[in-house]
Design a protein that fits this description.
With 262 residues, this protein is an alpha+beta fold. 49% of the residues lie in helices and 19% in strands. The strands form two sheets. The protein has a five-stranded mixed sheet with strand order 2-4-5-7-6, with helices on one face. It has a two-stranded antiparallel ribbon with strand order 1-3. Helix 3 runs parallel beside helix 4. The site of adenosine-5'-diphosphate has 20 residues, from helix 4 and helix 5.
Length: 262
């Protein structure tokens, strides 16, 4: 059955049943449309790295033996694009998983401040040319969310701040443990996001002109995943940015009040 049911004139049980059926049908249609869109977006995103790999493989066949500089350059491109496809498939899987399976809340516990410290250490070694500071208030940082999802959120935001901040810039992370929630703020002195792009920045595959950043390896999926996870765990995320001056991301996470060991 794919047709909507005609609603009877009388608002009786049949009416309610038919109306419920129509609503269900609409949701199924919307789901199918979303899936179609997802597959078309994903294959579009895969096309670019694949055609770059193909082009360089052809160059290698033609010139690889005679010209060592072509060999080196083309292999570099092939490796970079392979890494991009790997990241893309990993993020696509995460996106699809989020779509299908709800993020379980309250079944696992994570110490957000500790996780943040690990991400800061890792980010600092990846981007030593940017100054990175992390301050936190006293208090508990327990969140009832699996570390896998929490890491996706925090890592994406911190790495973006570092990635889009030029050499000599600064990224400042603060964490505050309040009564019922934990607030995290990530501020950078980077390139910022043009005002016209800001409303769409959490959309899947949305990227501001990719030539702006130092490493063009992004996928445009990071913030979409972040937003989805935040919505599922009852968190809030907002972003303020001034082009040329920098970006600030504010996040709040619901805090676990009780001590899980009791
Ligand atoms: P990407 O993989 O391209 O980084 P994201 O979804 O993480 O994808 O981010 C989407 C776009 O938002 C990026 O392409 C970048 O243009 C912009 N962006 C995200 N964070 C920042 C930031 N801190 N400063 C400047 N631009 C940013």
């Amino acid at each position: 059955l794919t047709e909507r049911l005609e609603l009877p004139k009388q608002r009786d049980e049949i009416y309610v049943l038919a109306d419920t059926f129509n609503q269900l049908l609409e949701r199924i249609h919307a789901g199918v449309e979303r899936q179609k869109q997802f597959i078309s977006d994903a294959s579009h995103e895969l096309k670019t790295p694949l055609s770059i790999i193909e082009g360089h493989a052809k160059l290698l066949i033609r010139w690889g033996k005679e010209k060592p500089e072509v060999l080196e350059e083309s292999l570099g491109y092939i490796l970079a694009e392979t890494a991009r496809i790997q990241l893309l498939s990993q993020q696509l899987l995460m996106e699809a998983e989020l779509e299908e399976r709800p993020v379980s809340v309250g079944q696992e516990w994570t110490d957000l401040a500790e996780l943040l410290q690990q991400i800061v250490d890792q980010g600092g070694s990846l981007y030593p040319e940017v100054e990175l500071a992390y301050d936190r208030s006293e208090g508990s940082y327990l969140v009832g969310v699996s570390p896998v999802f929490l890491q996706q959120v925090l890592q994406n935001i911190v790495i973006n701040a570092l990635k889009y901040t030029p050499e000599g810039g600064r990224v400042h992370i603060t964490a505050f443990s309040g009564l019922g929630e934990i607030a995290v703020r990530v501020t950078d002195t980077g390139i910022g996001i043009p005002f016209e792009d800001q409303p769409r920045i959490f959309e899947r595959f949305y990227r501001v002109d990719p030539s702006r950043n130092r490493s063009s390896g992004g996928t445009g999926l990071g913030l979409a995943i972040v937003k989805k996870i935040m919505d599922r765990i009852g968190g809030i995320i907002s972003l303020e940015s001034t082009p040329g001056l920098g970006t600030s991301v504010n996040m709040t996470f619901p805090k676990v009040i009780a001590n899980p060991s009791i």
